[in-house]
Amino acid sequence: LCFAAALAAGERSAPNCWTMVDDEKAGAREQHLLVYSPALKKSLLMAGMSAAGTPYVMAFDAAARTWEPWSEAKPDVGKALPQAAACDAEGKHVFILAGNRLHKFDGEAKAWSVQGEPLSNCTLTAFSLAFDPVNHGLVLLGAETALDKVGWMGGVFHSFGDGKWQPLVFGDETARTAHDQRREALTALVELIGRTRHAWYRDPKGEGSD
């Protein structure tokens, strides 16, 4: 009965769907970042490779479905590619991580500044950045690529207080031990297969050799 009621309610509600609100009026851009600012009530498009004549930061008003140039200022990221972005709770500042440096954009002053110490020894991939209002900092989460942590989620925390990055520990000790055991077993299996294959290629007929 509950399932039938849920189905009936679902049929009455409007389906989720995508609606085209823009046709590249902000200029074609690749590898960009889009962050919504509650303070500005606009989405800020930044970073990446923008079209010629397009400012570094564009603002989009979803209600009016209009774009407007917001800022020509660019962070000094060198050859690094901005990979993740997050907005603070008030929406006054946007943070982007480019390479190993964190940059802050002041939406009102429209200026960039470098934040804290560089991120070092980071072994994360496919990561995302989020604002942490409780601990007053930023959390970077992603998949671990380090051989001793592969298959495990990893993260680091950036404190606004001292500007330092600190590694985060996930799972309890039992879960971490079980993961280590699975990883070691998989590594041993790969090693065994590799050695067997290598021996076969050296002596495919099994006749032995010196």
Rough outline: elongated
Rg over CA atoms, rounded to whole Å, is: 24 Å
With helices defined by DSSP (H or I, 4 residues minimum), what is the helix count?
A: 2
Ends distance: 76 Å
What is the string of helix and strand elements?
A: HEEEEEEEEEEEEH
* Helical/strand content category: alpha+beta
User: Mean pLDDT, rounded to whole units?
Assistant: 82
The tally of beta strands, per DSSP, is: 12
**Biggest sheet details:** 4 strands, antiparallel
Q: State the helical fraction.
A: 10-25%
Give the strand order, joined by hyphens, for the main sheet.
1-2-3-4
**Spans of at least 5 consecutive residues with low confidence:** none
Polypeptide structure, described:
- By secondary structure, the chain is an alpha+beta fold.
- Helix content is 20%, strand content 34%.
- It contains 2 helices and 12 strands; from the N terminus they run H-E-E-E-E-E-E-E-E-E-E-E-E-H.
- The strands form 3 sheets. Strands 1-2-3-4 form a 4-stranded antiparallel sheet, with no helix packed on it. The chain has a 4-stranded antiparallel sheet with strand order 5-6-7-8, with no helix packed on it. A 4-stranded antiparallel sheet has the order 9-10-11-12, with no helix packed on it.
- A hairpin with a 4-residue loop joins strand 7 and strand 8.
- The N and C termini lie far apart (76 Å).
- The mean pLDDT is 82.
